[in-house]
Design a protein that fits this description.
Two copies of one chain form a homodimer.
Chain A (H helix, E strand, L loop, with lengths): L5 H16 L6 H8 L3 H7 L3 H20 L8 H18 L1 H11 L2 H5 L6 H15 L8 H22 L5 H15 L2
Helix pairs in contact in A: 1-2, 1-6, 2-3, 4-6, 4-8, 5-8, 5-9, 5-10, 9-10
Chain A binds a DNA duplex through helix 2 and helix 3.
DNA sequence: ACCTCCGGAGTGAACGCTCACTCCGGAGGT
DNA sequence: ACCTCCGGAGTGAGCGTTCACTCCGGAGGT
């Protein structure tokens, strides 16, 4: 366990506690304890608790976006879609805390007040869907409908896995992703 | 505005405030004020705030279940599915507060601790999906996958409408529901 | 090589405030 | 007079935030 700087230490502790107990269930005193710092130290790095939460969101958004990205433009639309969505699921199944946190943030006053943009991880797939619609590969319907058809089932499945202990194997993931493509297709 | 009993008055106020400001953002003093009762009165009807929240959940779950239910067993599986899902969407688009509250409840410590059962409104459609799988009308995959494919996009769409002000018309709803059926089909 | 000084990161007891919850005096019916 | 129901000031626990202080590493004088 290499010695990390305190800022990182605090953000790491915050992710775990927020995911487990929510923003309101995680007092600064607990954050400090878990991060192995004094309470006051938190306020040296973040102007207040809200700022810490927003900062954590921004960091994760970027990190996740980079991990989902797929740089294989030679493959077919379907192939690229399937790969990215599968990556998406696997990432969050292996990083439950990040999913819990992002969900919590996304549907809270924070995101409404500030950067309303959709999570970074969606951006790539949204681009793909737009291009696919242009080419007539997927249905000519509103992007919101396409996004719902693509992400809805995938997020639902991840949620069942994370919040309801659903046993999730590769076969189920494959079936779900394939089926969402069928739903999108023209 | 007919005079309702205080219990109902409190629950009605709670629904609105919880939906708008969340559980933590709705102090009992505000609940009381909005319900037109004293703070103490709340505790005559509910042992504590948590109990109130759980009670509200139970009431809504039942109410919504009854409204979504479809008693037309003569129609085809697909037809019944489409009708129920469309009802589902329309209900929540017209009862945003109920959706906001249910979402909040479902993914909070409350539901994890107590009745873990899925929301009532799912039960009917789950039955339908099971029957349809039995008949070979839909894919022979795990019920969790079927549920994700069915509800995922529908909930995603409603969320976009409620939290992100997505303009939602009948055509978009139809397209989405139709596409989810395609995803389910064998 | 030693000592002195200093800047600023780090700390946590203390503060002010908000909250869920209590409790008792009074209103209103019988 | 009695009983039931209600209200809202009061209470203490717990929260986010502050600030006077500690501590340590390195710069600079000798």
């Amino acid at each position: 366990m290499a010695k990390k700087d305190k800022r990182t230490e605090i953000l790491d502790a915050a992710l775990v506690l927020f995911a487990e107990n929510g923003f309101h269930g995680s007092p600064t005193s607990q954050l400090a304890q878990r991060a192995g710092v004094g309470v006051g130290t938190i306020y040296r790095y973040f102007s207040d608790k809200d700022e810490l939460i927003r900062e954590l969101y921004r960091d994760l958004k970027q990190k996740i976006g980079a991990r989902i990205d797929e740089s294989t433009p030679d493959l077919s639309m379907q192939e690229r879609y399937v790969r990215m969505m599968t990556k998406f699921i696997n990432y969050f199944v292996q990083h439950r805390n990040e999913f819990r946190f992002m969900e919590q943030y996304y549907f809270s006053p924070y995101s409404a007040e500030f950067d309303c943009s959709a999570p970074e991880e969606n951006a790539r797939i949204q681009q793909l869907l737009l291009a696919a619609r242009e080419q007539g590969v997927v249905q000519d319907v509103s992007i919101s409908v396409l996004q719902s058809l693509a992400f809805g089932p995938v997020i639902a499945l991840v949620k069942e896995n994370i919040y309801r202990d659903l046993d999730l194997d590769d076969e189920m993931i494959r079936q779900t992703v394939e089926a969402t493509w069928t739903a999108l297709e023209n």
